[in-house]
Design goal:
AhpD-like; 9 helices; mainly alpha; oxidoreductase; 199 residues
Length: 199
């Protein structure tokens, strides 16, 4: 018998009525809901502060929706999973674990990274990326120029190195907002990317 998480409030703060959203955010919410079949709770939780939601989404898109030789979209999601696990953020681990499963085409890897990225079956480059990212997430003053050089030695460009730090920093914000507002992960995230899509 499987118990689904019981629906409850998605934030400790107000949630804007969908009918009252500014047109650009209403359009973005509709696109996301059409693509995924549901609206992730973080969108609804941020919607009462439209200027901040716009800025949040713009930063997310700039950092996460690109593939580079040094950091694929799937690897970017694994940074989120590992650092969010270090920050005890259930929302981001579950939501970005789902996206990581889809983007890496691996139904197991995100779970292994969330539990202990050190033992996850990753190559040396991605282990180094996660080592530096988790250090920045948990002990930022301990990150040294040598850590950045380790990333460069694995072929990351200056932009990629910056992105490791920027993704970690941006999701530290996201983790803390999710904790502060008590945003729960949508139940739909738990099953995404675990089984091949039916054709």
């Amino acid at each position: 018998m499987t118990a689904e998480p019981s629906p409850g409030p998605i934030s400790r703060f107000p949630v804007a009525d969908a009918a009252d959203l500014p047109p650009d955010l209403a359009e973005r919410h509709a696109e996301v809901e059409e693509k995924s079949g549901f609206l992730p709770n973080v969108f609804a939780a941020l919607s009462w502060r439209p200027a901040e939601e716009r800025a949040f989404l713009a930063m997310h898109d700039a950092l996460m929706d690109k593939d580079t030789p040094g950091l694929s979209t799937g690897e970017r999601e694994l940074i989120v999973v590992a650092t969010s696990a270090a920050n005890d953020c259930a929302y981001c681990v579950v939501a970005h674990g789902a996206i990581a499963r889809i983007r890496t085409r691996d139904p197991y890897l995100a779970d292994l990274v969330a539990v202990d990225w050190r033992k996850a079956p990753l190559d040396d480059r991605v282990h180094t990326v996660l080592d530096v990212a988790v250090r920045l997430a948990t002990d930022p003053a301990a990150v040294t120029a040598g850590d950045l050089d380790r990333l460069r030695a694995h072929g990351l460009t200056e932009d990629d190195v910056w992105d490791v730090g920027a993704i970690t920093a941006f999701f530290a914000l996201s983790n803390r907002l999710a904790h502060f507002a008590a945003i729960p992960p949508n139940p739909e995230f738990h099953l995404m990317g675990r089984l091949p899509r039916q054709r």
